[in-house]
Specification:
53 residues; mainly alpha; 55% helix
């Protein structure tokens, strides 16, 4: 069984402090593994939603 590595692009963003606090709370609650996971998950959901319309 071979593992396929997913290459990710590193970025820097500016974000509203309230949104960052919300994201950090979700990480603490173990909804997301980390900030990157949360942002990627939410962006993917939005992209999927837009492509299905």
């Amino acid at each position: 069984m071979s593992a396929i590595a997913s290459v990710k692009e590193r970025i820097t963003i500016s974000i509203d402090p309230g949104l960052l606090s919300w994201l950090d709370q979700k990480v603490q609650e173990r909804i997301f593994a980390n900030r990157s996971h949360g942002l990627e998950y939410l962006l993917k959901r939005q992209a999927d939603h837009e492509s299905s319309q």
